[in-house]
Amino acid sequence: MTALSGASPAVPIYPFSAVIGHDQLRLALVLCAVRPDIGGVLIRGEKGTAKSTAVRGLAQVLSAAYAAAGDGGGQLVELPIGATEDRVVGSLDLQKVLRDGEHAFSPGLLAKAHRGVLYVDEVNLLHDHLVDVLLDAAAMGRVHIERDGVSHSHDARFVLIGTMNPEEGELRPQLLDRFGLTVDVAASRDVDVRAEVIRARLAYEADPAAFAQRYADADAELSARIAEARALVSQVVLPDNELRRIAALCAAFDVDGMRADLVVARTAVAHAAWRGETTVDEGDIRVAAELALPHRRRRDPFDDPGLDPGQLDDAMQQAGESADREPEPEPDPDPPGGGGEPQDPANGDAPQQNSSQQDAPQRGAAPRGGHSAAPSPTFKTRTLVVPGVGEGAPGRRSRARNRTGSVIAATAEPDSGHGMHVFATLLAAAGRQAGPGALRPVPDDVHRAVREGREGNLVIFVVDASGSMAARDRMSAVSGATLSLLRDAYQRRDKVAVITFRGQDAQVLLPPTTSVHIASRRLSRFATGGKTPLAQGLLAARDMVVRERARDRARRSLVVVLTDGRATGGPDPLGRARAAAARLVAEGAAGVVVDCETSYIRLDLAQELAHRLGAPAVRLDELRAENLTALVKGAA
């Protein structure tokens, strides 16, 4: 658990009531404080938008609410990005085992967060398996551990809050769905509001104690109101017609599964309690839908987040009609005539249809003032992998030794492996111990598990956007293939970067990121035509490999070059391209060349480039999963 302020404990926290604007964010946090089983809040927004400030302020208010009810709790526990699973859920107390021979459990951060707030900053950068653990605990209110011979269970009811900057990467839709509520925040563009924010922050920094005292009454009133709502929430009634409204609303937006219905219901009940009412009404449901449905409509990493207010109005109206309608009686087991009833046009499907119709003209539309053709439809690609075995962050692309893989061996090296290999440790202790008696391992007996799984890589797309590639249908195919590879990179938890080259130079269209949504937006519009500076594209990729290796030595790079292999412009363009390829190879980056040549008479220049890169070459029409040859996997 970290300090609340990051400074001296004597410095007061910035008051929750002093957070300017962000009304929806503050409401979402309060509702989860009233009813933690909503499943927590995911706060999405650019840096510097008071995300962390609001969370820390809530923890202080919640702590006071517990105190007002004569109870303890409300503490803030921050989970660091580099935390291990043992640190999060707890593990065998190795010190007691080795020293006392006692089978003991050491609790983790989830136990410390019980009855408080568990805060994960940059949750999108946390490994998926840890996010799953957190969300399971938040949903069930309990943690059950079965590992390393330990069987332990404890309560873990907490308000889960995650913050993220979408530019730094997205959560998978499966994980997004597990968060109860989502709020998008952004800095106001209103000058008066921005001036008020600056004024308040400067006042706090000048005299934190006096500033906090100025808002003490407002925070105390908020704490008391949260305590009252928590006491009232169990008495709130959800009428059957409003329950039907929720079901019709979620069906209208075609969300997957039943989690959305349950979250909307819980949030509506919490909002009614927050208002001091004991019956849920339509207004409570609308507020709940605005917070619980936007992130559940994203079916694809390329989809824009959010919920259109007009669509929500239409859906609420139709859901109300469905809710007021009397439930139809159960049909006869064998109705005469055999046919089903005709579908009711007011059954809640219209908003989804309107959504599709509204979005359709935008998909693949040529950007205003742009020069690129609309990308061809995306498709499932076969896996491109980095040869050998790495040690990078857990992912789903290339082989690696990391903490999420399967155990394949044991090692006595203290700085190797991940986690204790219990059997090998006990075996070492037994081999050292002479004669019968209780087995007493010592630190020198400890063996660590060697695990092999998969890692995520840095996948650098180097896209030829020159005149030799600028034919409309060809550029459309290349863009569609690149988007397909981007989708694959997203699913495999890679970082991605996009470099285009045309004219006289190469351009970094997208620096390394895990946000495939931003990557797709950048890739949907870029200029084409001009000469083909292939050497500059390869050198830009080489420079990026060097820079990223300095930031993260464990993450290996895979350079995917989409080109027909031509090189034009300046003296000896082909010779300079060959020299650039040699420099890229010298950095040890793995490569794949996607041959985009479509001429009837082939020059096979892309094949030559692949040879110089020591990389497999794949023709554009072979990139699909069902068509790709074993050439790429053969390089592993």
TrEMBL record:
Residue ranges, annotated region (Disordered): 296-404
Regions of compositional bias (Polar residues) in chain numbering: 350-360
Record-linked Pfam families: AAA_5, AAA_lid_2, VWA_2
CDD domains per UniProt: AAA, vWA_Magnesium_chelatase
Residue intervals of the VWFA domain: 458-594
Signal peptide stretch: none
Protein name: Putative magnesium chelatase [Mycobacterium tuberculosis H37Rv]
